[in-house]
Amino acid sequence: MRAALALLPTAANAFAFGISCWVEGTWEAPYAAQILDLEVTQYWVVDTLAFSGGTDGLIHLADIDGGGSLGSLPAPAGVIPTGLAWFQGDFYVCRQGDPLIYKSDGSGGWLTFLNPAGTSGGTLECFDIFGDQLWESEYDGGQARLFVFDSDGTGAVTIDLQGLPGQVTGLAVYPLCVDQASDPFGGIIACCGDSPYFYTYYVSGTTAYPEPSGPTPFPFPVAQTTGLACSGTPDGQFFWSYLGTDGVYHVSEIWFDVNELAPETWGGIKAGTGE
Prior knowledge:
2% helix; globular; 48% strand; disordered N terminus; 1 helix
């Protein structure tokens, strides 16, 4: 990792709005053509970062700590994935403009089913707020939303994301420490292309409540965000991929202070007061 890009959460760089975030390390992937979407998997038993290599036609597996290559597998023929998820031992991919979702079959091939988001889908994520399901972003008619559905594309519900300026290019869903049985509650952090902000939401049922303090500015300028993934634990560790202002794709280990939201404020957020 390159400590030169590390930012510490001190008064000097604390943000005036949005939840706090800071970068602890950054790496590149010279073995890949691009870095499009990210997913934390257990492909090699331990946590591994997977991402689409874009135009190289591969899904790459990387060391989560330093970005070293751990291998790759072919993406579906002719498909450059814009969305990638790891779900119950299989990879799922989608691409904008394609009406299908592709599921790895365990032997190097891919199965398909109709995409609940049609041809407007963007990124993919997997999380268990409602039970293990896939989450896909969509932007249509000026409105960003999520489709949440089962692993065969059935049972889809939608969640509107207010305030997003365009198609989601980075999506991470993360757990919050609440009673999931009585009131399923989780967090979402999303990025949109060249917009320089992380947009945070809190999800209860099928409603997403925006973070009351607003979006969080990026810790440094980038040309475009290409992916976001949560480590799967409630401690605030995420991974953020982007095309840098230097024209190179990077992945940063980024931490968000997701515990800034105190339990006593949940009721206020749901009531629209943010108190």
